[in-house]
Amino acid sequence: MSTADVLLSKEDGLGRIILNRPKALNALTHGMVLEIAAALTAWEDDDDVRAVVITGAGERGLCAGGDIRAIYHDARAGGRGAVDFWRDEYRMNAHISRYRKPYVAIMDGIVMGGGVGVSAHGNVRIVTERSVVGMPEVGIGFIPDVGGTYLLSRAPGELGTHAALTSARLGPGDALALGLADHFVPAERLGDLIEALAVHGPQAAVAAHAATPPPSEVAAQRAWIDACYSAATVEEIVVRLRDAGDQSAKEAAEQITGKSPTSLKVTLRALREARDLSTLEEALERELRIATVLLGAHDLAEGIRAQVIDKDRNPQWSPATLEQVTPELVDSYFAPEETR
């Protein structure tokens, strides 16, 4: 059953999911996740549904992520509601990745964090000229989650590392280059595309409406990105970026140094280890373990405060520098729960 925050319907063989919080850039609440998950389960065995399509209400984007205000208040109160939200969200992400029917994600406009989780695990992922895709979590004291470590670890070369550590805002060509999307369709054709999905199915509909995407800016910078981000530590990555002799590399170094030092180091390790994981589910389990520890740490609440609550854009990280984030501290985020 639909609620005001997520509209669910069956129309002409399509299971339609419309994220409907446009004033909040369609940020996901726990209730929305549970509704979407239930609909996906029901539609998977429903012969009246040949494909699922997810879109966002309004003109600004598919989804800006999870409801981080709720996470902030939970972290401040020492609660566990955020962990329950993440657990259900990650289960939904895993289900999307193995969905037995075409799952068409219209990644128009802003697609960040949890928005990547409801789209980039699908099997038909469409970007437009308005798409801005990213995993900005290190800027709020968190890590790329919703399977973000798995997705970014499989991007060509070190493009995923660059995107994760800088919180890069990826255009449509970049999203395609990193493997976060499959097709480019101009925004003016989306209405016709959805109509064609119902009549002809995803393959024919996409073939009829897809166009040549714009080039990828980050892919054109692979030389210095691969050379710099292949370093073993965040500290060495920053040094290489500053010494690369490229203005974009220097800007990347400055972007990184403004993020949570703890999140940066935990994210780099999570990305590197995700390369050796065989399944998305393994990565999601590890992300949940890390997220649970981060919920009780200083930087997550502080990062959300600075970016969203007070909006002073001046987070006071603790530890304050990369050098102060010890290997033992990083290890604590990866320890099995029973050993903490």
Automatic annotation (TrEMBL):
Pfam families: ECH_2. InterPro entries: ClpP/crotonase-like_dom_sf (IPR029045), ECH_dom (IPR045004), HIBYL-CoA-H (IPR032259). Gene3D superfamilies: 2-enoyl-CoA Hydratase, Chain A, domain 1. Keywords: Hydrolase. This is 3-hydroxyisobutyryl-CoA hydrolase. It is an enzyme of class 3 (hydrolase). The keyword Hydrolase applies. The keyword Hydrolase applies. Residues 15-334 form the Enoyl-CoA hydratase/isomerase domain.
